[in-house]
Amino acid sequence: MSNLVRRDPFAIDDMLDDLFKGYFVRPLHLAGETPEVRMIRMDVKESDKDYTVHAELPGVNKEDIHVTVEGGTVNISAEVKKTSEQKEGDKVLRSERYYGRVSRGFTLGQDVDEAAARARFDNGVLELVLPKRATTPTRKLAIE
């Protein structure tokens, strides 16, 4: 079965977007270079008691990772700092620096108990264990 797409032939914005898509994109990295963290890739798993998040942050120091939890909203941000220098004797042949910041935020289906939340960083993987906050049952109010 073919997919049909309905288009407005007079929508200039869509035509310009399609025309210039991909033309002004900077190369992500040079050939032979190791790619830096550009996007936080993550897995989120839910159990009856908690959420478990595994976020990949290769090349990031533990001190440069910041996690905030407010209600059911989780924000992860990290600063990437990398410097490399090639020397031949006292002469510097090549020196490179890369500084960047990545962040990712998402909302969970239920509020998180911030006091019991745990975070661990090992081998470039951040693991968050976010216990669900106990919900109170809905109470019906008597009208006087």
Structure, explained:
The strands form two sheets. Strands 1-2-7-6 form a four-stranded antiparallel β-sheet, with no helix packed on it. It is mainly beta and 144 residues long. It contains one helix and seven strands, in the order αβββββββ. The longest helix is centred in the N-terminal third of the chain and has 9 residues. It has a domain of 95 residues: Immunoglobulin-like (Sandwich), CATH 2.60.40.
Provide key terms for this protein.
144 residues, mainly beta, Immunoglobulin-like, three-stranded antiparallel sheet, 7 strands, flat
SSE layout:
Elements lengths: L11 H9 L20 E6 L3 E7 L8 E6 L2 E16 L2 E17 L10 E5 L2 E7 L13
Antiparallel strand pairs: 1-2, 2-7, 3-4, 4-5, 6-7
How far apart lie the N and C ends? Answer: 60 Å
What would you report as the Rg, rounded to the nearest angstrom? 23 Å
DSSP strand count: 7
Instruction: Just name the CATH architecture of one domain.
Output: Sandwich
Number of helices: 1
Bin the strand percentage: 35-45%
CATH fold-level topology of one domain: Immunoglobulin-like
> What does the largest sheet look like?
4 strands, antiparallel
> Which whole number gives the mean pLDDT?
80
N-to-C SSE string, H for helix and E for strand: HEEEEEEE
Highest-level CATH class of one domain: Mainly Beta
Task: Name the poorly predicted regions.
Answer: 29-34
**Principal-axis shape:** flat
**Major sheet: arrangement of strands:** 1-2-7-6
- The portion of residues assigned to helices is under 10%
Main structural class: mainly beta
